[in-house]
Design brief:
single chain; 124 residues
Length: 124
Protein backbone atom coordinates (compact mmCIF):
# COMPACT_ATOMS: atom_id res chain seq x y z
CA UNK A 1 0.00 0.00 0.00
CA UNK A 2 1.12 3.50 -0.62
CA UNK A 3 2.06 5.83 2.22
CA UNK A 4 -0.86 8.12 1.34
CA UNK A 5 -3.41 5.32 1.84
CA UNK A 6 -1.78 4.34 5.16
CA UNK A 7 -1.79 7.97 6.32
CA UNK A 8 -5.49 8.45 5.49
CA UNK A 9 -6.40 5.09 7.05
CA UNK A 10 -4.55 6.01 10.26
CA UNK A 11 -6.25 9.43 10.48
CA UNK A 12 -9.73 7.96 9.88
CA UNK A 13 -9.05 5.22 12.44
CA UNK A 14 -7.89 7.74 15.06
CA UNK A 15 -10.83 10.10 14.49
CA UNK A 16 -13.40 7.30 14.82
CA UNK A 17 -11.66 5.97 17.96
CA UNK A 18 -11.78 9.44 19.52
CA UNK A 19 -15.49 9.82 18.68
CA UNK A 20 -16.25 6.36 20.11
CA UNK A 21 -14.29 7.08 23.30
CA UNK A 22 -16.00 10.46 23.85
CA UNK A 23 -19.46 8.96 23.33
CA UNK A 24 -18.61 6.13 25.75
CA UNK A 25 -17.53 8.67 28.39
CA UNK A 26 -20.73 10.69 27.83
CA UNK A 27 -22.85 7.58 28.39
CA UNK A 28 -20.96 6.68 31.56
CA UNK A 29 -21.37 10.24 32.83
CA UNK A 30 -25.14 10.06 32.15
CA UNK A 31 -25.37 6.85 34.17
CA UNK A 32 -23.40 8.45 37.02
CA UNK A 33 -26.10 11.10 37.48
CA UNK A 34 -28.38 10.08 40.34
CA UNK A 35 -31.72 10.43 38.48
CA UNK A 36 -30.53 7.91 35.88
CA UNK A 37 -29.41 5.18 38.31
CA UNK A 38 -32.59 3.12 37.81
CA UNK A 39 -31.66 2.87 34.14
CA UNK A 40 -28.60 0.73 35.00
CA UNK A 41 -30.93 -2.16 35.78
CA UNK A 42 -32.55 -1.67 32.37
CA UNK A 43 -29.20 -2.02 30.64
CA UNK A 44 -28.84 -5.58 31.88
CA UNK A 45 -32.46 -6.76 32.19
CA UNK A 46 -34.33 -4.67 29.63
CA UNK A 47 -36.85 -3.56 32.26
CA UNK A 48 -37.32 -0.49 34.47
CA UNK A 49 -39.49 0.12 37.51
CA UNK A 50 -43.02 1.28 36.77
CA UNK A 51 -42.80 4.31 39.08
CA UNK A 52 -39.57 5.41 37.35
CA UNK A 53 -41.12 5.02 33.90
CA UNK A 54 -44.21 7.02 34.93
CA UNK A 55 -42.08 9.79 36.42
CA UNK A 56 -39.32 10.12 33.80
CA UNK A 57 -41.04 8.81 30.66
CA UNK A 58 -44.64 9.96 31.00
CA UNK A 59 -45.35 10.15 27.26
CA UNK A 60 -44.08 6.61 26.74
CA UNK A 61 -46.32 5.34 29.55
CA UNK A 62 -49.37 7.14 28.15
CA UNK A 63 -48.75 5.46 24.81
CA UNK A 64 -48.31 2.05 26.44
CA UNK A 65 -51.43 2.39 28.58
CA UNK A 66 -53.57 3.16 25.50
CA UNK A 67 -52.84 -0.29 24.08
CA UNK A 68 -54.84 -3.19 25.48
CA UNK A 69 -52.56 -6.20 25.64
CA UNK A 70 -55.50 -8.56 26.26
CA UNK A 71 -58.84 -7.46 24.80
CA UNK A 72 -61.65 -7.36 27.30
CA UNK A 73 -64.31 -10.01 26.83
CA UNK A 74 -67.95 -9.01 26.99
CA UNK A 75 -69.96 -10.74 29.71
CA UNK A 76 -72.43 -13.40 28.55
CA UNK A 77 -75.33 -11.57 30.26
CA UNK A 78 -75.01 -8.55 27.98
CA UNK A 79 -77.91 -7.50 25.77
CA UNK A 80 -75.97 -8.22 22.59
CA UNK A 81 -76.12 -11.78 21.25
CA UNK A 82 -73.18 -13.96 22.21
CA UNK A 83 -70.70 -14.54 19.40
CA UNK A 84 -68.00 -17.12 19.76
CA UNK A 85 -64.41 -16.13 19.07
CA UNK A 86 -64.25 -18.60 16.19
CA UNK A 87 -67.29 -17.01 14.53
CA UNK A 88 -66.01 -13.52 15.15
CA UNK A 89 -62.59 -14.12 13.61
CA UNK A 90 -63.59 -16.61 10.91
CA UNK A 91 -62.87 -15.30 7.44
CA UNK A 92 -65.80 -14.69 5.15
CA UNK A 93 -66.54 -17.37 2.59
CA UNK A 94 -65.24 -16.37 -0.83
CA UNK A 95 -67.86 -15.51 -3.41
CA UNK A 96 -68.34 -18.11 -6.09
CA UNK A 97 -66.53 -17.31 -9.32
CA UNK A 98 -68.55 -15.39 -11.89
CA UNK A 99 -68.88 -17.13 -15.21
CA UNK A 100 -67.92 -15.36 -18.42
CA UNK A 101 -71.51 -15.33 -19.66
CA UNK A 102 -72.65 -13.58 -16.46
CA UNK A 103 -69.98 -10.92 -16.95
CA UNK A 104 -70.99 -10.38 -20.58
CA UNK A 105 -74.67 -10.03 -19.62
CA UNK A 106 -73.81 -7.49 -16.89
CA UNK A 107 -71.76 -5.43 -19.35
CA UNK A 108 -74.52 -5.55 -21.93
CA UNK A 109 -77.10 -4.57 -19.32
CA UNK A 110 -75.01 -1.55 -18.26
CA UNK A 111 -74.43 -0.64 -21.91
CA UNK A 112 -78.18 -0.62 -22.58
CA UNK A 113 -78.65 1.72 -19.62
CA UNK A 114 -76.05 4.12 -21.02
CA UNK A 115 -77.26 3.61 -24.58
CA UNK A 116 -73.84 2.40 -25.76
CA UNK A 117 -72.47 -0.95 -26.86
CA UNK A 118 -69.00 -1.72 -25.44
CA UNK A 119 -69.05 -5.33 -26.66
CA UNK A 120 -69.95 -4.51 -30.22
CA UNK A 121 -66.33 -4.37 -31.39
CA UNK A 122 -65.61 -7.75 -29.70
CA UNK A 123 -68.55 -9.53 -31.33
CA UNK A 124 -67.70 -8.40 -34.86
Amino acid sequence: MSHTVLLWGTWIHNIFFLLFFLSFLAHMAAIALRPNWPMVRGIFTGTVRLDYARHRHALWMIELEKVDVVPELKPAESASPAISVAEETAPEKPAPPIQEQEIRSMIEHNAKKENTSPLKHQDE
